[in-house]
Amino acid sequence: MGGLQYLTLTRPDVSYAINKVFQFLARPTSAHYDAVKRILRYVQGTVSTGFLIQKSSSTLLNIYIDADWAGCSDDRRSTGGFAIFLGPNLVSWSSRKQPTVSCSSTQAEYKALANGTAEASWIQSVLKELGVHQSKPPVL
Q1: Please, is 99 exposed, middle or buried when counting C-beta atoms within 10 Å of its C-beta (0-12, 13-18, 19+)?
Q2: Is 0.70 topped by the overall pTM?
């Protein structure tokens, strides 16, 4: 299971499934064991999948944020996530269950937005400290 946890750092496509299995690590059932085998088969078939980091002069920071509302049937909590790109390169991402139950889909989205915005602000401050000037988004 530790090897699967390492994959969550480099393969965001399997992070959710691995996280879901880890929630039941203390008392796993045969269904959880079957899920782990399914994840391993998926990883084996997609070994060449991964991040492509490419050189780019763009310093435009793009962030994509989303949340589901009460998506977990076990505790009705929402899952929120974000992906932050610096130019064409993914530099930060997160997908996690929200700590409290949201009363509406709007509340779930706002919680995810707050998490993503905090991360993007931190990345902007790091880039500023490194002397990287941010590109301005194109005017449409």
Answers
A1: exposed
A2: yes
Cα distances (angstroms) measured from residue 70 to each of 2, 33, 79, 103, 116? 28, 25, 8, 9, 19
Q: What is the rounded CA–CA span in Å between residue 101 and residue 114?
A: 16
Question: What is the distance in angstroms between the CA of the first residue and the CA of the last residue of the chain?
Answer: 47
Contact 79, 61 (CB under 8 A): no
Sequence-distant contacts of 103-106: CB under 8 A, at least 24 apart: 104/69, 105/67, 105/69
Q: Angle 2-10/30-45 helices, nearest 10 degrees?
A: 50
Which residue type is seen at 124? Q
79 touches 67 (CB < 8 A): yes
Could you list the beta-strand ranges (E) of the chain: 61-67, 79-86, 89-97
Residuewise pLDDT in 10s, the chain (140 residues): 777 888 887 787 888 889 889 888 889 899 989 999 999 999 999 988 877 788 998 899 999 999 999 888 888 999 999 999 999 998 998 888 899 999 999 999 999 999 999 999 999 999 999 999 887 777 77
